[in-house]
Amino acid sequence: IIGWANDVFSYGKERNAGDPHNMVLLFSAEQGLSTDEAVARTVVMHDREMMRFLELTESVRRSRWISTEL
Length: 70
Hints:
The chain is mostly helical. It contains 3 helices and no strands. Helix 1 runs antiparallel to helix 3 and helix 2 crosses helix 3. The protein is elongated, with a radius of gyration of 17 Å. The model has no long low-confidence stretch (mean pLDDT 92).
């Protein structure tokens, strides 16, 4: 998730360096999206995964099967 957030901020630098390892650049190249559309898709994907992570974290905290010390 952190990597996807970083990709939103670093895609310009990575594009200029010729580094293809960036979600924004991947969406743009593989799906023919504009940069703005690719950024928006990356943000949506990041936010969905972050929300799911927070939901799972809370469910673990509330679980009676997990020790409170853990």
